[in-house]
Design goal:
By secondary structure, the protein is of the alpha/beta class. The protein has helices spanning about 15-25, 35-45, 45-55, 65-75, 90-105, 120-135, 145-160, 160-170, 180-195; strands spanning about 5-10, 30, 80-85, 110-115, 170-175. The structure holds adenosine monophosphate. Adenosine monophosphate binds near residues 58, 86 and 142.
């Protein structure tokens, strides 16, 4: 059965990596607002130019923009379910997502927090940038230790309150994000199978 899930956690927690695995193993559709915004950034549209500056500073772009992006993608539907990766990031976005899903006669089946150790995160980000560089791939402008500190601050200030929000709704599951990639994937699978 199709399941809709949110992967929550700070930048570098492994949300994108785990989402990609779920796409491959379960045919789910990954909706990453970060990927959508990076695509908008490189497209050179008016919206892209507006968001580029904000993203490069490690701040959050406006709720209206990201909610609009998600709304567009949701209408296409996903027989295997959606994985929300990097969205919602504010309480307003969380409310909007609930409303959008309700309008489609759908709901969230699980909200999974990848619990990680902050100290390890900056190391992961630097490694991600090095690997991209070595592979001749573009390096994210916000994958530097300086911008990362601001992204982490934005997470604690604006996104971490969502943990309480979903806990209160009864849908929050926690997974050890510091475990090996396969072990994290197995823990997520367990949550999904009982959701
Ligand atoms: P990510 O790839 O999820 O780390 O996102 C990269 C950047 O895109 C963030 O630092 C924000 O500037 C922006 N961004 C991504 N998703 C959101 C969102 N849901 N709300 C606001 N800004 C976002």
């Amino acid at each position: 059965m199709a399941k809709n899930i949110i992967l929550l956690g700070p930048p570098g927690a492994g949300k994108g990596t785990q989402a990609q695995r779920l796409v491959e193993s379960r045919g789910m559709v990954q909706l990453s607002t970060g990927d959508m915004l990076r695509a908008a950034k490189t497209s050179g549209t008016e919206m892209g130019k507006r968001v580029a500056e904000i993203m490069d500073k490690g701040q959050l772009v406006t709720d209206e923009i990201v909610i609009g992006l998600i709304e567009e993608k949701l209408t296409a539907g996903a027989p295997g379910g959606f994985i929300f990766d990097g969205f919602p990031r504010t309480l307003k976005q969380a409310d909007a997502l609930g409303d959008l899903l309700a309008r489609m006669g759908q709901k969230l089946d699980a909200v999974i927090e990848l619990v990680v150790d902050d100290e390890a995160l900056v190391g992961r980000i630097v490694k991600r940038a090095e690997e991209s560089r070595a592979a001749g791939q573009p390096v994210r402008a916000d994958d530097t230790p300086e911008v990362f500190a601001d992204r982490l601050r934005a997470y604690y200030k604006q996104t971490a309150p969502l943990l309480g929000y979903y806990y209160a709704k009864g849908g929050l599951a926690q997974v050890d994000g510091m475990a090996a990639m396969d072990a994290v994937a197995a823990s997520i699978a367990k949550v999904l199978d009982r959701a």
